[in-house]
Write a structure and sequence with these properties.
With 297 residues, the chain is of the alpha/beta class. It is built from 10 helices and 14 strands. The chain has a domain at 2-157 and 193-217 and 261-275: Rossmann fold (3-Layer(aba) Sandwich).
C-alpha cells in the first residue's frame, strides 16, 4: 500500500515509519522540517499538499503533523489555527478527492477536566485552550468530510528520545546537578508511549472499523507520579521529588485538571492491548538510559 505520512519527523512519526517499512508498504514521509529523508511539506500550503498527493498517489494517509506546543499555541494563535485546523482541512480535502482513508491524531486535551474519572469516546469535548480547540476543529473537519477515517486521541506523549522535548525529557535533564525536583501533583492525565500507539494504530487500521477512538497507556497519573518513577528508573534515589501545585508554575495556556482518557471502545472490541503507563515509562526510560551510554570502541 502507498502511505503518506505527515509530521514524520516528530515523536510519533519516528516510531510509526519503521513499523510501516517492516510491512513493505511504500511510504512517503513528509514534514515541514525535511530531515531524516523526509520530503518537505507545509500542510497549511494547499498547493503544496495537492502536488504531493498528485505526485505520490497515496492510498492512505497518517496525519500526524501539528503544532503541539500548548503554550506556544496560546501565544501564537494564528499559527496554531493555520497548521492544526487549516492544515488538517487541506489534507482532508485531498483525501476526500481520492476517497482514501485518513488516520488523524488528536488529543485528550479536548475535554475540560471536570469529570472525576477518565473520559471515554462518548463524553462531550469542551476544550479550555487554543491548542485543544484547534485539534477539536480538526476532528470536526475529518468527521464531517470523510466516510473512512480514524480519529485517535492520545494522552501525554512520551517517546522519541532525541526528539522528546516534553515532560519526561525535561525531568531527566534536571537529574544532573539537582538534589530536589518539584512536579505538579494536581493535574492528572494518561501517558501514551509512541512505540505502543504506533503498534495500536496499525492494528486498528486493519479492522477498517472507522470512527473515533482513545488510545493511551492504561491507568492515569500526575506529573508528580511520573517524576517519582523516572527518578527510580534512572537509579537516582538520592534526588527528592516534591509535589507542587499548578500555581507554582504559571503558564499561558489553561490546562484541565483531568486529561485522563479511557480506551473504552478498544476495550469493548477486545483490542485494548496498551500496556500500563508504568510499564511504558519504565521501557522508555531504559531506552533513554541506553542512548546516553558512551559508545564503545
Amino acid at each position: 500500500m502507498r502511505i503518506l505520512i505527515t509530521g514524520s519527523s516528530g515523536m510519533l512519526g519516528s516510531a510509526l515509519c519503521p513499523l510501516l517499512s517492516e510491512r513493505n508498504d511504500t511510504i512517503l514521509a513528509t514534514d515541514i522540517n525535511a530531515n531524516g529523508g523526509a520530503v518537505c511539506l507545509d500542510i497549511a500550503d494547499m498547493e503544496g499538499v495537492k502536488k504531493v498527493f498528485a505526485d505520490f498517489g497515496p492510498e492512505a494517509v497518517f496525519h500526524l503533523a501539528a503544532v503541539t506546543d500548548v503554550d506556544g499555541c496560546e501565544i501564537q494563535q494564528e499559527e496554531a489555527y493555520r497548521t492544526n485546523t487549516l492544515g488538517t482541512e487541506n489534507i482532508v480535502f485531498s483525501c476526500m478527492k481520492r476517497d482514501i482513508p485518513l488516520v488523524y491524531i488528536s488529543t485528550a486535551a479536548v475535554f475540560d477536566g471536570k469529570k472525576k474519572v477518565p473520559y471515554t469516546e462518548f463524553d462531550l469535548p469542551n476544550p479550555l485552550n487554543v491548542y485543544a480547540k484547534t485539534k477539536l476543529e480538526g476532528e470536526s473537519i475529518v468527521a464531517r468530510s470523510l466516510k473512512r477515517y480514524f480519529i485517535v486521541r492520545a494522552g501525554w506523549m512520551i517517546g522519541g528520545i532525541d526528539k522528546d522535548k516534553k515532560f519526561v525529557s525535561k525531568i531527566i535533564k534536571q537529574l544532573d546537578g539537582q538534589k530536589e525536583i518539584f512536579a505538579v501533583a494536581d493535574k492528572v492525565g494518561s501517558l501514551t508511549f509512541t512505540k505502543d500507539i504506533a503498534k495500536g494504530l496499525l492494528s486498528l487500521v486493519e479492522t477498517e472499523r472507522y470512527g473515533l477512538y482513545h488510545m493511551a497507556n492504561k491507568g492515569s497519573c500526575s506529573r508528580y507520579d511520573i517524576a517519582k518513577l523516572i527518578v527510580k528508573f534512572m537509579g537516582r534515589d538520592d534526588i527528592a521529588v516534591t509535589p507542587a501545585t499548578s500555581e507554582m508554575f504559571p503558564l499561558p495556556a489553561l490546562r484541565p485538571d483531568l486529561e485522563a482518557i479511557d480506551n473504552f471502545k478498544l476495550t469493548l472490541m477486545g483490542m485494548n492491548n496498551m500496556p500500563t503507563w508504568e510499564e511504558a515509562l519504565e521501557e522508555y526510560v531504559f531506552m533513554v538510559k541506553k542512548s546516553r551510554e558512551p559508545v564503545g570502541l
